[in-house]
Task: inverse folding
């Protein structure tokens, strides 16, 4: 007896027509035909069933704050940081919690059930940490929320940056963050990485660094991050987010840098939407794309995952909690339009991100947690093209979100009565 059987499902590896049996909050069977009964049966009708989406890089303390206290007129990273500095003293725990919970509601409908959020620790009040810790507990039944202690104004540069970060970790934040390129000098940036990796090693915590988020090819803090990772034995537990300076570095230096990153087992987190919006602002033409070297990093065997970074905040006025939107943009910016390329992009939104986040029991395998999403598309390639409706979202074997398929009605003589974009416009072999 199963609690739920999803029948006639297509799997991310391209397999078609499988049944997935869920019992006791776990995936109990994945077979061509499960000859058994269940408390509920759902026909996927040849749709894609996927593990949930993961966002390994987000700023939930800032989300939905667009327009407070004013708009980012220039649209630049630096004005966004300055604007956040104006808003930060006005933040209240109640408002932070309310906005974060609203975001999490939307995330569930998009099949996004695992999120790593950076939490600004530069204000000694640490109201952001208090609020997000409460949110982490409140959403635990349906979203796993990891919290990064992030010294937005610099570990050394902020007046009480060092003490505030340590206090935030003592409060229960999960991960050590940093922003070396925002320190006053390159040397201060280097020293901050040494200190942050040491703190992580002493506390037994992972590390996630906003690293080289700049167009300056001489911003090479990722080199130091890799070296300190090896020095403190943190291989596989460290993430370098953004890494946009790599798009401006010369090829010879990158040919040395990528093997060093591979040796340190650095997890790489580009943020396609934000990177191409904020980088290259000083260029006229030709204008740089602003995203790190995704194809080359993947080819070298590094674990590459994609983050959404922002939604409707001082840095980014757009966003929809849709990781397929992130992947869709990554395809274009990285020029990875081939079939196998798109499969790798999809993995970067799911299994790679789960690896970055250290998730256990994740994925469509027997014995893993019964967390999955049914999409209005036949396969992962079509999912990236269509950014389709999430028909069902299942957490621990229970349906927690359901959406009607997107069907367009037509009233045209001699033409079809309706259009299903997930069925009527598929590649023909």
Result:
């Amino acid at each position: 007896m199963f609690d739920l059987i999803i029948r006639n499902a297509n799997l991310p590896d391209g397999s078609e027509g499988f049944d997935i049996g869920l019992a006791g909050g776990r995936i109990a069977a994945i077979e061509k035909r499960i000859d058994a009964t269940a408390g509920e049966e759902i026909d996927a009708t040849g749709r894609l069933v996927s593990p949930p989406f993961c966002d390994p890089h987000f700023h939930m303390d800032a989300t939905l704050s667009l327009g407070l206290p004013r708009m980012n007129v220039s649209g630049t990273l630096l004005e966004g940081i300055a604007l956040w500095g104006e808003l930060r003293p006005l933040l209240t725990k109640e408002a932070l919690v309310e906005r974060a919970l609203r975001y999490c509601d939307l995330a569930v409908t998009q099949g996004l059930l695992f999120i790593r959020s950076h939490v600004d620790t530069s204000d000694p009040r640490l109201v952001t940490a208090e609020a997000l810790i409460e949110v982490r507990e409140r959403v635990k039944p349906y979203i796993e929320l990891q919290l990064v202690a992030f010294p937005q104004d610099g570990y050394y540069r902020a007046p009480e940056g060092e003490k505030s970060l340590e206090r935030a970790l003592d409060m229960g934040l999960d991960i050590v963050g940093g922003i070396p390129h925002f320190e006053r000098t390159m040397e201060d940036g280097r020293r901050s990485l040494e200190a942050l990796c040491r703190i992580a090693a002493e506390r037994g915590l992972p590390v996630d660094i906003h690293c080289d988020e700049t167009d300056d090819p001489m911003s090479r803090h990722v080199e130091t991050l890799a070296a300190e990772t090896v020095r403190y034995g943190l291989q596989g537990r460290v993430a370098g987010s953004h890494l946009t300076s790599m798009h401006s570095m010369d090829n010879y230096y990158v040919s040395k840098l990528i093997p060093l990153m591979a040796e340190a087992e650095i997890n790489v987190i580009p943020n396609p939407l934000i990177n191409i919006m904020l980088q290259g602002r000083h260029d006229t033409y030709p204008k740089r794309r602003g995203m790190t070297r995704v194809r080359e990093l993947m080819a070298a065997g590094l674990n590459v995952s994609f983050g959404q970074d922002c939604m409707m905040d001082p840095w980014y006025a757009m966003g929809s909690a849709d990781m397929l939107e992130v992947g869709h943009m990554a395809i274009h910016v990285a020029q990875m339009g081939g079939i196998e390329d798109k499969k790798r992009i999809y993995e970067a939104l799911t299994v790679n991100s789960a690896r970055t986040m250290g998730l256990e029991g994740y994925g469509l395998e027997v014995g893993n947690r019964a967390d999955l999403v049914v999409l209005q598309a036949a396969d992962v390639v079509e999912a990236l093209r269509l950014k389709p409706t999430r028909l069902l979202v299942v957490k621990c074997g229970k349906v927690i979100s359901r959406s009607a398929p997107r069907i367009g009605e037509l009233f045209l003589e001699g033409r079809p009565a309706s259009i299903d974009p997930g069925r009527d416009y598929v590649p023909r072999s």
